[in-house]
Amino acid sequence: MPRPANPEVRRRLLAAGLDLVHEHGFAASGVKDITDAAGVPKGSFYAYFPSKEAFAAAILQHYWSDIEERLLPLLDADGSADERIARFFHALADEHESADFLLGCLVGNMSLELGGSSEPVRAELTRILDRWGEAIAGCVRSGQVGTGGIAADLGASELASVLIEAWEGAALRGKVTRSRAPYDRFETVTLPALLR
Amino acid sequence: MPRPANPEVRRRLLAAGLDLVHEHGFAASGVKDITDAAGVPKGSFYAYFPSKEAFAAAILQHYWSDIEERLLPLLDADGSADERIARFFHALADEHESADFLLGCLVGNMSLELGGSSEPVRAELTRILDRWGEAIAGCVRSGQVGTGGIAADLGASELASVLIEAWEGAALRGKVTRSRAPYDRFETVTLPALLR
User: Fold this and answer.
1) For the whole model, what pTM was predicted?
2) ipTM above 0.90, yes or no
3) Of A13, A66, B47, B64, which shows the fewest CB atoms inside 10 Å?
4) How far apart, in whole angstroms, are the C-alpha atoms of residue A187 and residue B151?
């Protein structure tokens, strides 16, 4: 019989695991490191997650839900579409800066570490990147009608994808430079060029 | 006394380590995996590399020298500057496609896995990204004079950096989609928007 699930233990495993994997990467974070950080016995890990890969997918989901709740609403706030998109990416960059650019974006980190090897993680990354793309594309679309200011010769979904990809590349470089310069040039060069 | 260095053993360690780390990541590739793949005794690893991090920096150097020799010359070939830049990134994408988009770019992979934690690797990544940027910037600059076709209102170095960053983001997404779509939209949407 499966052990009774304790939502508090699951929550602690996710929170501690997210911090560890975000900082050190997936392969470098052992199950024991995660259970120690969560303050639960090592054996309890597999009562909550069928595999370490399933756990990786769960922390990605946890990470993304938080961004979706707190930051995606900026895309529906006041201002023109390009201003709202800039404000959203600026807020994301603020979060990276608050960790001294040491962590980067968990979605990007996991894409490169596990995108090529883990199907459960790849499925979760696909879902997140699609949802993220839809949110940006909705905003782009609203700027492509009337006097919204965004040229309509390119599809909104395609523009949303290149924006997200260019932003992930900026975050990647920011982890090497440990500075906001790549995020800043994404905002001042890439965004205006794509949302002309 | 240090053991006599055998360049062939060093070369085999670098080649085998590059393949393993490119496919599985740095933390997931153990020293024994690397020496087994190279067909040398485990103990010989530290005769050639003072640490696993120093080894990571050496395989990055090995990876980049190869790109520099084979692909960077495309930036100095015939055609307009924007055509030469497009041809260079197209050739890089061809290499990623030949590995079914499972590996991605080692520079990007290592930036996210080790950029935040390893100083020797971060120093090597900085050197590579700077050299890469200088090569692209030289090409951009040649397209910004006379009727070269690239607008001169933005600095060549800044444009080179955003191009490399957007390309790394495309490669990141390509590892998740396992398709050429992100590379293609980098070429058809991002490149022309930035090199207008």
Assistant:
1) 0.96
2) yes
3) A66
4) 19
